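Contributing new records

If you add data, match the layout below exactly. Sequence lines come first and carry their own label; structure lines follow with theirs. Keep one chain per record. Anything else will be rejected by the validation script.
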Amino acid sequence: MNLNDKNTEKYIKAFETYFNGSVSQPFHKVRQQAASNFEKLGFPTTKKEEWRFTNIASIAKADFKIAEKKNAPTVSLEDIEPFLLANWQGARIVFIDGFYSEHLSDIKNISDKITLEPLSSHFEGKAGLVNKNLSKIATFDDEAFTALNTAFTTEGCLVHIPAKVVENNGIHIIHIAASGRTLTNPRNMILCEDNSQALVIESYHTLCTDDVFVNSVTEISVGENTRLYHYKLQDESLKSNHISNVAINQKSNSNYISASFIFGGKLVRNNISTKLDGEGISSTLNGLYISREDQHIDNNTFIDHAKPHCESHELYRGILMDKSKGVFSGKILVRQDAQKTDAKQSNNCLLLYEDAQIDAKPQLEIYADDVKCTHGATVGQLDESAMFYFRARGIPKEKALSMLTYAFAEEIITGIKDDSLRDRVEYLLLDRLKSHQA
C-alpha cells in the first residue's frame, strides 16, 4: 500500500462507522458510490496537470477527524457577531462545523415562497428537490474532494427560489469551523427556477485556533431567464485548509454574476466550473484575493460554452505579500456547436514583495470558428511613478501603498451588488494592508 492509499484508507474506515443511522436514506447509495470513487481516486498529487502548482500532501497526511454534530462546541450570537454583515436586510442561515444552527439563524426576512433550510430535513423522503438534484451538477467521478464531501454529506443548506419569484433582500449562508483538527464538509444547493432572481452570499470563517480542513461543495442551477448574484467570501484563519468546488449549470437567457473573495486560509484551492447549457446566456466569474506570510491560494476556473450565442466575462486579481504564492488556472472551452461565442478572460497579479510568487495558466480550447475569445495575464509591481507622485505631495508611503493597491482591486469591489458585502470586502482589504504595514 502506498502513502496515498494509507491517507485515503483512514477516511474510508471512518465512513464505514459514520453513517450507521442513515443507511435507509435513498441518498445513502450516492454516499457509498462517492466513498468508493474517493478510494479509487485518492488524493490528487502534483503529477496531475491540474494540480501541478498546488501540493496538498500536508492535508492528505494530516490526521483530521470527521466533524460530528454531537461534538460541535456551543456557539453564541456574540461569538459570530464579527462575521455578520453590517446593515444586512436579508436572511441568514448559520452552520457550525457543517451542521445547521437554528438559534443562530434568522430566516424571516425573505419571501415565504422561498425554501431556505437544512438539507437534512429532505433526506428521508424518496422524492423531492434534494434527492432529485443533489450531486447532479457537482459530480464526483473524477473529483476526489467532491467525492469526499459527498461521502460525508449529512447536512447542508438548501436554497430554492421558485419560478417567477424575485428576492431583493438576499440570503447569507454562514459556515463556521469551530472545532480544531477536524474535517468539515459544508454542502450547499442553490436552485433558481425559471424567471426568478436572487442574491446569495456564502461566507466561511473559523472560531478555533487549531488547524482545520474545510472541504466545501456548492451546486447551483440557474433556470431560464433567471438572474442570480452569487458571492463567496472566505475569511478563515491562517491555520485553515480550504478546498472548495462551486459547480453551476445555466439554462437559456440566464445571467449568473459571481465574485469570489479570498482573504484567509493557509492552503486554499478555489474551483469554479460553469456550463452554459442554453442560448443567450451571460456568465460572470470574478475574483479577488490577497495573500500574506506563507499562504498558498489557487484559483481554478472552467467555463464550458456548450451552446451558441453566449458570453462569459472573467476577471481575477491577486495581491501577494511576503513569501505567499498564488496560482491561477482558467480554462475556456468552446464546443463545436457554440458559434457566436464571446468570451473574455483576464488575470492580473500585483506582487508587493520580491519573494511573492504567482503561477498563471490561462487556456482557450476552441472548436467553433465564429467566435470572439480573448485572454490575458499580467504580473507586476506598484507603479513607481505613481508612488513618487503621492510621496511628492506629502502622502506617507503606507497610505500611498494602500491607495494604489485599493485602486488595483477597485473594479471588482465596486461591482458588488450588495452594499453590506461591499463594505465588508473594502474593510478586509484595507485592514490586511494596514496590519501588514504596522
